[in-house]
Structures are given as structure tokens and as C-alpha cells.
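Slide 14.
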Amino acid sequence: MNDFFQLSRTDGIAHLQFNRPERMNTMAPAFFPLLRDTVRSLHDDGSARVLVISSTGKHFSAGMALDTFASSDTMFDTSSPRARLSFQDSLRRLMECFEVLDRARFPVICAVQGGCIGGALDLASACDLRYASADAFFCVQEINIGMAADLGVLQRLPKLIPCGIAREMAYTGERLTAERALALGLVNAVLPTPARCSTMRSAWRAASLPSRRSRLPAPSSRSTTRATTAPRPLCSR
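Slide 15: predicted structure.
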């Protein structure tokens, strides 16, 4: 357990649960390497056949903790050519922290309640399955604060929903409701409120299937599925 999430394991199911509801489960700089190292450890030790990511509180996550990122004088410094190169390296390292979800040998299931905003949508879009509560919504928040969505969501969304809808989300920052997300295929199911319990039950039920049926940490079909859903750029023509 750390300041951002706790990890438990039961019968081949690893459960990673965000535990900062008082901060809307925002992601400070230290969150990213912790997530990366945790998923890599699960991948390497081979004990988990599936990973469920869930949250606590009203919202799944409000994304990057901009207050703590902004307090870093070096991470967003672009005042010189060397500083800009350093910024690009820092950005690549952040992206790699979500790419481990793509590369993991086990399926990753995301259970979303309330807001899935900004960087949280980057994370959710990197998962294999998404279950949402009726009050869930999804938002590419970066456009609303003058930033570029740069942790992979613009590459992943067009493989999950129609490209025009992905562009609309990126250009307008409008919220995608759970009902519409289901109709578009972003989520696998929408569960009624009270949200978190029913959403977690569905995620756990889905997680139990590969956990029971596969003797291997990674079902072979997962590699094939990932190969056919490799991210493509949002603005490819």
C-alpha cells in the first residue's frame, strides 16, 4: 500500500484500488512510477491472471494532480532547447507508465464510478474491459485547461469509439455519459446506482472467468486481441 492505491490478490485476481477519495483520486507525479512498477511486478511474477482497477469515493479519478505538477519547476520548463528536450523525455516516461497496461500478459479490467477525467481516461482507455456506473462520465479534460492530451488517449480512443466522436471529445472537452459510452462501445456494461458495488461485482465476475479458465498468467487470445487493436493516431487521414 502507498499514498495512492492499495493492491490485493485473491485466487489469481489482482485488485488495484485507488484510495485518495479526499483528493478525487488525482494522480501526482509519484503515482505514475508506482503504477508502472506494480503492474510490471505482477507481470513478472506470473501469479495474477487478471488485474481489476477500481477506485474509492464519488469519482474514479480527476486525472493528473495539476497543482503538484505545476509546483515542479523543471518538469514543465520549456524555456530553452535543452529544457524542451528534457520535457519530452519526462512526457515519454509518463506515457510508459500507462503503456505497461497494454503490455501486461494478463487482461486488465477497469471499474469506473463518477468522473473519469483527463489522465484517468488515458488509464481507462489502456485497459481491456471497462465497466461503468450509471453516474459515470468520461472527459478529455485537457482542452478545457489549455493542454494537449498527451498520455495516449488520443491514440487509443479511435480504436474504441468512432473517430469522429473521439475528435469531438478532444476538441470540445464535453463529457461522455455512461449511457452514450455504452452505445458507442467505450464501456462493456453500465450498472445502476448505487454504483460502485454493482460495478465492482460485474468487474469481479468478468475477472473470475480468465482467472478460473486459464492455467497460464496470460490467455493466448489476449496477445491476438491486442495485436488487432493497436493504437492509431487520432488525426491520421
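Speaker note: The longest strand covers residues 5-10.
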